[in-house]
Each structure stands twice: as structure tokens, then as C-alpha cells.
């Protein structure tokens, strides 16, 4: 029995269980015991990281930590962060780590197109070897009011922009996740978010060139972490987590502002800039505080997630814009 319903948008944790059941009709038809156990006791799970294919960049890990980017609070334990993810291609729960192991991360190519000197398709290993990997500890703040502090490995997004050689007419970057129901069953017709795949996100060229914008290839000193969006995802720590698109296959330079996956589904709730601001509530919940998934404690949310010194200047002349989620 397939019932067509209005489909998924993000929900705060406090409401997550009922909404999850609402969306996951297959799970209603017979929830697997292992899934239920992993959901109830995620802290008992290991940090799953399947290496089904050799990683030609494995020797680049762990990369040297860049200590310039200080963090407040405690690093989230690996087994907690690696078992509490948003990756809707693998379902609406936070416990998609097992399901995400279906993702095939080699071979993997990224297409650069749109307003570039020359379109090109690049193998992920060629790209990673062309840049400088480093580790940065960033705080991740999800729009659902939870947060984590994670050591990401990757490279500055400005290197990706240089690699792509955009034309000066390009103003925005649009990024796309894979769209392949064989790797992600939720992308099958009739399932979650039908017709809205692939996941899309974007930013301005100025944001991409900001020193904080980071292309993530690994976490906790290792590559190939599928639930974190291997082999390559975005991290812009001053924005809500939904901007941090995972498992990217296409990067398009354009003069038109891209419309993201969530913006397309629910524009009243999710905008383009999506900068963290404790004073601007989501239409359905407050953004004043967040739950740190590592400690379980609530902490006050900070403007730009604490990164204002780096990024506030990007927006100072955008008074009329909807800058906050
Ligand atoms: N392709 C894709 N990217 C995605 C998502 C997704 O569902 N699909 N979820 C986003 C959301 S809402 C958040 S909060 C972060 C979560 O990142 P994490 O699982 O590494 O903590 O990934 C973002 N990137
Ligand atoms: Mo999120």
C-alpha cells in the first residue's frame, strides 16, 4: 500500500519520533529488531566505516590539524557522531549509518560545468591529490537544534574554485548529490521526497572563497566515512547543517541563485543563506539553544554559530535579504 503524502522536511528532535513514523511507512509494516536496537542505543553501536574498495588517498590520513580554527566545548566522540546523521537518501531517522554503507564511493567522479573556462569531469582521487588536506575542528549546528563538534579532514573550498576556473560572470555555485536508487533505496520512485532528488545546495562565490568554507573528505582522521557524505561534502560551519551537502557529483557555476533541496520543498522554512541566528526562530521551533549530541547538554546558540569574525562581513550590505534560515 503506497500512500502519497506531503513529504519530508526537517523536524526538531523533540518531534522526531512521530514524524519519522509518519514518513517511514515501510518501517510501520514491520520494523526490524536490529534497526530498533540501534535506534534506541546508538551509543552502543560502533563507528561503522566500510572499506569495500581500496582508497588511493588513504596514505593522506590523518592530515595535519590546522589549529587556527578554535572551538569551544568538547569534541564529540566518534562513535556518537558517526551514529547520528542526517542523510535523507538513506532514510529520515538519525540512524542511517548502516544503510549508508550501500553507497559506492569508488569510482567517483565530479563534473564541473556551467560558467567555467572549460567543463571537466575529474576523478575524486585526482582532485584530492591536487589539493592540500588538513584537519579542522568545526562545530556543526543542525537547523533541528542539535549540534556536534567534529574533526573534519578536507581542503579549503577556494582550492576547488581555483581548480574549476570559473568565468568572472559566475556568481553562485550549485552542488548536486548523486541520484541513484541502486545506492540509495529512498531515491526509488514513490519513496521519500519523490521527484525532489537529487539533493541540491549552493552558495555565492564570495562564500565559497571565504577561508572557512571547507570541502570535507574525511572525519576523525580517516577517509571513506559514508554516513558523513564520502567521498566529498561541504562544510560551512556558520550556516545550518542542511547547507552542508554530502556526496557531491556535480559542481555548477552560474549567475542564478540555486534553489536547494529544502528550499524547494518548504521555502517558508528554509532559505538560501541559512546563517545560524539564535534570535530568529524556525517557524515551528526556537533556535535560541541547541542540544550537543556529545554531552547531551543544552547550550545557547551563538550568532553565525560562533564564526562571525570570519563571515559577518559577507552579509553587511545585504540588509533586505533573508539571511537567517
Ligand atoms: N545529500 C545530503 N546532504 C546532506 C543531508 C542529506 O539529507 N542529504 N542532510 C543535511 C543536514 S540536514 C545536516 S544537519 C548535515 C548532517 O551532517 P552529518 O550527518 O555529517 O552530521 O548534512 C546535510 N547534508
Ligand atoms: Mo540538519
How much β-strand is present in the residues?
Answer: 15-25%
Mean pLDDT: 88
- Class of the domain at 60-76 and 105-314 in CATH? Alpha Beta
Instruction: Return Rg in Å.
Output: 19 Å
List SSEs in N-to-C order: HHHHEEHEEHEEHEEEEHEEH
The molecules bound to the chains, other than polymers, are: ligand MTE, molybdenum atom
Give the end-to-end Cα distance, rounded to a whole number of Å.
36 Å
Content-based structural category:
alpha+beta
For the record, what is the CATH homologous superfamily label of the domain at 60-76 and 105-314? Oxidoreductase, molybdopterin-binding domain
Could you walk me through the main structural features you see in this protein, from its secondary elements to its overall organization?
The longest helix is centred in the N-terminal third of the chain and has 8 residues. The strands form two sheets. Strands 3, 4, 7, 8, 9, 11 and 12 form a seven-stranded mixed β-sheet that branches. The protein has a five-stranded mixed β-sheet with strand order 2-1-10-5-6. The protein starts with 15 loop residues before the first helix and ends in a 14-residue tail after the last helix. It is an alpha+beta fold and 325 residues long. It is globular. The protein has a domain of 227 residues: Oxidoreductase, molybdopterin-binding domain (Sulfite Oxidase, Chain A, domain 2, Alpha-Beta Complex). The chain is built from nine helices and twelve strands. It binds the ligand Nc1nc2c(c(=O)[nH]1)N[C@H]1C(S)=C(S)[C@@H](COP(=O)(O)O)O[C@H]1N2 and molybdenum atom (MO). Molybdenum atom binds next to loops.
Amino acid at each position: 500500500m503506497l500512500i502519497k503524502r506531503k513529504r519530508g522536511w526537517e523536524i526538531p528532535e523533540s518531534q522526531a519520533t512521530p514524524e519519522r513514523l509518519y514518513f517511514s511507512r515501510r518501517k510501520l509494516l514491520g520494523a526490524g529488531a536490529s534497526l530498533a536496537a540501534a535506534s534506541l542505543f546508538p551509543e552502543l553501536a560502533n563507528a561503522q566505516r566500510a572499506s569495500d574498495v581500496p582508497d588511493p588517498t588513504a596514505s593522506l590520513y590523518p592530515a595535519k590539524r590546522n589549529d587556527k580554527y578554535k572551538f569551544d566545548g568538547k569534541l564529540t566522540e566518534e562513535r556518537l557522531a558517526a551514529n547520528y546523521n542526517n542523510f535523507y537518501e538513506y532514510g529520515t531517522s538519525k540512524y542511517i549509518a548502516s544503510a549508508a554503507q550501500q553507497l559506492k564511493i569508488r569510482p567517483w567522479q565530479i563534473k564541473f560545468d556551467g560558467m567555467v573556462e572549460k567543463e571537466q569531469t575529474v576523478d575524486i582521487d585526482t582532485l584530492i591529490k591536487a589539493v592540500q588536506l588538513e584537519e579542522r575542528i568545526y562545530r556543526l549546528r543542525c537547523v533541528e537544534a542539535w549540534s556536534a563538534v567534529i574533526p573534519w579532514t578536507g581542503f579549503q573550498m577556494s582550492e576547488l574554485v581555483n581548480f574549476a576556473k570559473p568565468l568572472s560572470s559566475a556568481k553562485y555555485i550549485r552542488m548536486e548529490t548523486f541520484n541513484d536508487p541502486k545506492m540509495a533505496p529512498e531515491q526509488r520512485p514513490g519513496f521519500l521526497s519523490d521527484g525532489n532528488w537529487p539533493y541540491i545546495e549552493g552558495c555565492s562565490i564570495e562564500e565559497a572563497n571565504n577561508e572557512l568554507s571547507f570541502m570535507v573528505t574525511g572525519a576523525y582522521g580517516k577517509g571513506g566515512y559514508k554516513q558523513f557524505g564520502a567521498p566529498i561534502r561541504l562544510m560551512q560551519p556558520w550556516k545550518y547543517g542542511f547547507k552542508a551537502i554530502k556526496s557531491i557529483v556535480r559542481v555548477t557555476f552560474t549567475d542564478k541563485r540555486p534553489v536547494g533541496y529544502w528550499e524547494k520543498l518548504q521555502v517558508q522554512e528554509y532559505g538560501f543563506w541559512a546563517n545560524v541566528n539564535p534570535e530568529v526562530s524556525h517557524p515551528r521551533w526556537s533556535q535560541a539553544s541547541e542540544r550537543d549530541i556529545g554531552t547531551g547538554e543544552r547550550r545557547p546558540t551563538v550568532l553565525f554559530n560562533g564564526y562571525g569574525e570570519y563571515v559577518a562581513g559577507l552579509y553587511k550590505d545585504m540588509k533586505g535579504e533573508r539571511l537567517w534560515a
